[in-house]
Amino acid sequence: MTGSTFSLKLKSKKGQFIVKDLNNSTTVADLKARIAQMTQINEPQLNILVGFPPRPLDITHDTQRSLESTGICSGETLIIEEKPEFNAIQQSLEEDEALARRLQEEEEQEQLRQVVEADEEGSRVQLPPGSSGNFNGVLMKRVVPADNSCLFTSIRFVLNGKIDNEGSEMMRHIIAQEVAADPQQYSDAVLGKSNSEYCAWIQKPDSWGGAIEVAILSSYYGIEIDVVDIQNAIINRFGEDRNYGLRVFLLFDGIHYDPLYMENEVGGAPATIFPVEELGVYQQAEQLAKEAKSSRQFTNVDHFSLRCLQCDIKLVGQAQASQHATETGHNNFGEI
């Protein structure tokens, strides 16, 4: 039996949509096809996030399974992202050359150390050698995976132009060391948990980063990290009081970070590190925040209404959902 029909809500960069006339026997493949049609995102580039906190839905294996088997329920909100296209041949070559890439990691780290100049305040980032200093292009977003390490992946990209999460573990370790070394500054009240619990938590690959982590990494790398907050159409400048000469930009939509970059008009690698005095770049970031807010490209995790899909209790915002999950062990939520 198929049971009664139900609907799902979609949030994507193309806007918000409602998928109607679904039932428990609808397959993942059918859902993919309808989402692709509505959002105009090719199926291979679909990244579907479900639940709360949002987690990726496996849409690459056993796509003939039913929605009932995935735990997706009526009224739930799915967040739809577009993954960058990736050449299958290149992917195969990279798999064959995995050993070579591991050996190259040491060389990459050395190149990063050349970008970082030690001083009395820590590791201060400089403009990459050979930078043209031409910042007259258009500031653009580079999409990174929604894998709970998007903050660290974004920071790695703006520092060395690579999209991968190989530096995430190192950054998490740096943060844990800094927090453990200063329990007075990083107290239970600041962290929301004990210092030792936080240090163990942040080093887990499924833990999200936020303001505390951005501030620590800004200090560690000696660079201003400007977080473009779409929901409030403002830019939060981490490290502003340190008078760093350089800055990078991250875009934050309420649950996800992406790095911002500028294409080089004369070719070469995109620009991701900018002199603080380049006000034109900052003004572009401000305008980007305003435009993204006006088109509602954000998720308000503090005020949106949720319900627990396991006990049907209604909740408001991330704080109540987290408390409910701690008290009951329930972790499947849908937006109302």
Can you tell me about this structure?
There is one protein chain. By secondary structure, this protein is of the alpha+beta class. It folds into three domains: 4-82, Ubiquitin-like (UB roll) (Roll), CATH 3.10.20; 85-93 and 105-119 and 129-293, Cathepsin B, Chain A; 303-333, no CATH class. It is built from eleven helices and 16 strands. It has helices at 28-39, 67-70, 88-96, 98-115, 150-160, 168-181, 188-191, 195-202, 211-221, 279-294, 317-328; strands at residues 6-12, 15-22, 46-50, 55-56, 77-82, 116-119, 122-125, 139-141, 224-229, 234-238, 246-252, 257-262, 274-275, 305-308, 314-316, 333-335. The strands form four sheets. Strands 8, 9, 10, 11, 12 and 13 form a six-stranded mixed beta sheet that branches. A five-stranded mixed beta sheet has the order 2-1-5-3-4, with helices on one face. The two termini are 27 Å apart. Mean pLDDT is 77; it is low at 86-90, 108-122 and 297-302. Pfam families: OTU, OTU1_UBXL, zf-C2H2_OTU1_C. GO terms for molecular function: cysteine-type deubiquitinase activity; zinc ion binding. Its main location: cytoplasm. Hydrolase that can remove conjugated ubiquitin from proteins and may therefore play an important regulatory role at the level of protein turnover by preventing degradation.
Give a brief rundown of this model.
This protein has 336 residues and is an alpha+beta fold. It is 35% helix and 22% strand.
- Which structural category do the helix and sheet elements fall into? alpha+beta
SSE sequence, one letter per element:
EEHEEHEHHEEEHHHHHEEEEEHEEHE
Task: Write the CATH fold name of the largest domain.
Answer: Cathepsin B, Chain A
Q: Regions with pLDDT < 50 over 5+ consecutive residues?
A: 86-90, 108-122, 297-302
The fraction of residues assigned to DSSP E strands is 15-25%
> What is the name of the CATH architecture of the largest domain?
Alpha-Beta Complex
Give the overall average pLDDT: 77
Helix residue percentage? 25-40%
Rg over CA atoms: 21 Å
* Helical run tally: 11
Number of strands: 16
Distance between the termini: 27 Å
The structural domain count equals 3
CATH class category label of the largest domain: Alpha Beta
* Largest pleated sheet: 6 strands, mixed
The coarse overall form would be: globular
Coiled coil: 86-121
Main location: cytoplasm
Domain OTU: 139-263
Keywords: Coiled coil, Cytoplasm, Hydrolase, Metal-binding, Protease, Thiol protease, Ubl conjugation pathway, Zinc, Zinc-finger
